[in-house]
Amino acid sequence: MSESQQHATRQCVSCGINISGTNAARFKCPDCGNLIFRCSTCRKQSNLYECDDCGFTGP
Questions:
Q1: pLDDT the model gives residue 3
Q2: How far apart are CA 34 and CA 44, in angstroms?
Q3: Which end of the chain has less Cβ packing within 10 Å, N or C?
């Protein structure tokens, strides 16, 4: 997915909510470098996430 497409579809990778304009985290996947977005609720609850590109999972 291109960076422009990721900006258009900013969704939490854990719960799927639209995170545009919220206090969300943005970071690169430790394995492949794909950009990952997580909402503050999923971060606080340590919900699992999975990278869409490589399948890496993390807390």
A1: 53
A2: 22
A3: C
Amino acid at 18: N
Residue 20 lies inside a defined structural domain of this protein:
yes
How many structural domains is the chain composed of?
A: 1
Whole-prediction pTM value?
A: 0.76
Q: How far apart are CA 58 and CA 49, in angstroms?
A: 6
Return phi, psi of residue 43, to 5°: -65, -45
Residue 29 belongs to some domain of the structure: yes
Average pLDDT in the 50-57 region? 94
How many CB atoms within 10 Å of residue 20?
Answer: 12
Enclosing domain of residue 12:
3-46
